[in-house]
Amino acid sequence: MWSHLERGSSPVDWCESNYSITPMIAEFVNTISNVLFFLLPPVLIHLFQGYAKFFNPAINVLWLLLMVVGLSSAYFHATLSLVGQLLDELAILWVFMAAFATFFPKRYFPSFLGGNRRLLALYASVFSVLSTGFLVMHPKANAFALMTLAVPALVFLCKELKRVKCARVYRLGLRCVAVSLLAMFCWIIDRMFCDAWLYINFPYLHGAWHILIFIASYTALVLYAYFNVSEERPEQKPQLKYWPKNDFELGIPYITIKHPYKKDNLAI
């Protein structure tokens, strides 16, 4: 059992040469490229204070889980241990399932849920526990299995963008889809054409994947947060804003609540 904690015990080894920069870190670029997972979530927690207070505090769980993903990924790439690999992949799985339970549109709920999001969260948790066991038993196939989860997420995102009336939200959605596809492209060609990247001495596309997939992931969560308020409490009028300057659309997007009152108090 202790052997799974040893360096190099993972069956997965990415294209970057091992210990080429420092003897302490196996894949240096793949490790430090997770830095955005640590830097941005605390900022997002601050920016989403109003959203968490007046609509759904579960959004902060998602930002914290992104930090767990970054920590797990950094540990994995620094050690290439099997435990690090499993922690990395399980963190990604739980982010997907937490986001699904938080943002899946109620109009798509099956009838047996009765519109109950807590019940959906329970089923998602059971699925996550069962999937955790599968990921532990089949570590070689995990990365490809997790990659397929991005497909329905992007499909639902595109479906929601067709319904949105705010041009600013629509533009952000298009950028999110483009960055997601670029991230997946980097991941795939790093795996498939590693020899070519080594030949030109540029085996760093997996590091680019880390940066791009973080940008795509948090942007998707911002968009789904907007869609969620728009569907369940449209009277609160969610607004997409950017930090540090609201008129600079390449800043950090976040959602505010224009009318932060509870639905139960509408008649007052």
From TrEMBL:
Keywords linked to the UniProt accession: Calcium, Hydrolase, Lipid metabolism, Membrane, Metal-binding, Transmembrane, Transmembrane helix, Zinc
First-level EC class: hydrolase
Binding site for Zn(2+): H77, H206, H210
GO process annotations (BP): ceramide catabolic process
One family name in Pfam for this protein: Ceramidase
Residue ranges of the TM segments: 28-48, 60-78, 90-108, 120-137, 143-160, 172-189, 209-227
GO CC entries: membrane
Topology within the bilayer: Multi-pass membrane protein
Catalytic activity, EC: 3.5.1.-
UniProt-recorded Gene Ontology molecular function terms: hydrolase activity, acting on carbon-nitrogen (but not peptide) bonds, in linear amides; metal ion binding
Domain of life, per lineage: Eukaryota
Subcellular location: Membrane
UniProt cofactor(s): Zn(2+)
Residues noted as binding Ca(2+) in the record, renumbered to the chain: D13, W14, E16, N18, E27
Sequence similarity: Belongs to the alkaline ceramidase family.
Name this polypeptide is given: Alkaline ceramidase
Source organism (scientific name): Pieris brassicae (White butterfly)
